[in-house]
Fold DUF458 domain-containing protein.
Amino acid sequence: MYFTSPTKGRLTFEQMMADIMGYITGLPSSAYKIIIGSDSQVKQETCFITAVIVHRLGKGARYYYRKKLQRKIKSLRQKIFYETALSLELGGLIARHLAECGLDDLQVEIHIDVGTQGETRDLIREVVGMVTGSGFQAKIKPEAYGAFSVADKHTK
């Protein structure tokens, strides 16, 4: 599993987590939030991007992303559920790693690419339930910038 950092290039999961830990311990007096969001774009295949954002509250952020190509998925419902599942899978790995490093109090948010406007509004209850049932905080549009802004940028 490889991730891309706009500044550091291609990283393994372990290298990404080491970079995140370095960023957090570099300014320990700050508050941090880990945000995970996925988005997708359908062309010949469906390109899924899962972004990991480390937000140093009030002082900027750093992000990484993973790209996954799948067969063409036409169903919006299936796409949204798959995006959410990708975010949850990565959220679980990151939360476990943070707990092993003694940072289990660090908040992990899952940003879901659904909102009250448009055709995804019927899916909100189900995907938010998936996320909160897995122990994470869920954010939907317009607060889900991890999905619709950061991840979306790399699906093109």
The radius of gyration is 15 Å. The beta strands are 2-5, 9-12, 32-42, 46-56, 61-70, 107-111, 137-139.
